[in-house]
Design goal:
single chain, about 200 residues, mainly alpha, 8 helices, globular
């Protein structure tokens, strides 16, 4: 039976809770998706976020983070791609004009898209690198990375679901097109603002 340092597990899950439930690109997009598409249609988006973060944490735990630390230019390029893609997503959110986006104006993010998005999400990188660096649950690199990924996933999914549920909760309040347009522009601005704290931190 695998013996775990429960104090470290508790600390890691607390860290995961703080990082998962606080504002960031994922949660801004989930809130907007909850409003525009509803909770049920946002489920693949939520599952993709959690799965993508798990894969990222395992990859970083096995040494990918060290590669970026040794070749800073690669991480700089990643940041540039991240910012460009997030600006594109912010514009898509701002341009949404109705609550029935699944027919004419767009569709919710898919599981695969949400999982892939984590690789250009500065906050996800910061969370994964910090988690792998700060918390050690097992001496074996692979086992440690998997255990951390599972611990983070247990906390992450219910945490981010709160944002999609909040979006659903205010859906009726945004039934007027002009109000919805103002909400989507606000979320677009918050999405752009949410990446600023993560930028410039590198992988140290």
């Amino acid at each position: 039976m695998l013996a775990l340092p429960y104090g470290v597990v508790s600390a890691a899950m607390t860290f995961a809770l703080v990082m998962s439930i606080t504002p960031g690109p994922n949660n801004a997009m989930l809130l907007a998706s909850g409003v525009n598409f509803g909770f049920r249609r946002t489920l693949p988006h939520m599952a993709g976020i959690t799965f993508g973060c798990m894969v990222m944490m395992i990859a970083i735990g096995l040494g990918l983070g060290q590669l970026f630390a040794r070749v800073p230019a690669l991480y700089t390029a990643l940041e540039a791609v991240s910012v460009a893609y997030l600006l594109y997503l912010a514009w898509k959110i701002a341009a949404s004009r109705s609550l029935s986006l699944g027919t004419a104006d767009g569709r919710p993010m898919t599981f695969v898209q949400a999982a892939a998005f984590q690789w250009v999400n500065p906050k996800a990188w910061m969370m994964a690198v910090t988690g792998v660096t700060a918390f050690h649950l097992h001496a074996n690199l692979l086992v440690n990375a998997v255990l951390l990924a599972v611990a983070f996933a247990i906390v992450n999914l219910p945490s981010i679901s709160v944002w999609a549920a909040c979006g659903l909760g205010v859906r009726r309040l945004l039934s007027k097109p002009i109000v919805l347009r103002g909400f989507n522009w606000t979320m677009a601005v918050l999405l752009v603002a949410s990446i600023v704290p993560a930028l410039g931190h590198g992988l140290s």
